[in-house]
Fold:
Amino acid sequence: MLTPRILVVEDEPAIADTIVYALSTEGFEPVWCATGGAALDAVKRTPCALAILDIGLPDTNGFDLFKRLAQLVPELPAIFLTARAGEIDRVVGLELGADDYIAKPFSPRELVARVRTVLRRVQRAAASAPTAASAFVIDDERKTIRYRGRALELSRYEYRLLKALAERPGRVFSRDELMQKAWDDPGASFDRTVDAHVKTLRAKLRAIDPQADPIQTHRGMGYSLREDG
Structure:
């Protein structure tokens, strides 16, 4: 069983050390970052199961960071940390889509318990959700995708494109959104680059199932994965 990686974004070393120690001793693999910029770099390199985000960071705030992380990792569960007592922080965080919220000072055991609760809730939701993209199995640790039981040979851009589509079946992604998700330097690529990669993806999927065409084109808008898989 894979050890869940937890992204910890906290600029106060003493608090970060406490969180990292508590998570490590409870079977998690914490990835600590002291700034929002470092956190964004970390999630590009290392898939994480959940993020713990301090609201007050030296280069940004937790709310803006959460929104930027969500662009890179859709549906990433998050727990906000704050030293502020005001209810407004809690309201803003939860309205943005955060899964939980805890105020400093906090018990490390309570934080770990909340992490477990959020992860269980996410796992139950994933298990009970309609398997719209059940034909696809994504292994983000190994950067591989299986389609109808067979492994696809994908370039890194094809992998990132298909992963983005398969994680949100039915959701229409614009070419620009797909470029942001798949390319290291989206500004250096062109819209038609996405079209070319979708074309090669379709060919690889048809090689496994000639009758299926799971990637839909939405003229003038972009692409989506069919909700029926």
Summary: The helical segments are 13-25, 36-45, 62-72, 87-96, 108-128, 156-167, 175-182, 191-208. The chain has a mean pLDDT of 85. The chain has eight helices and ten strands.
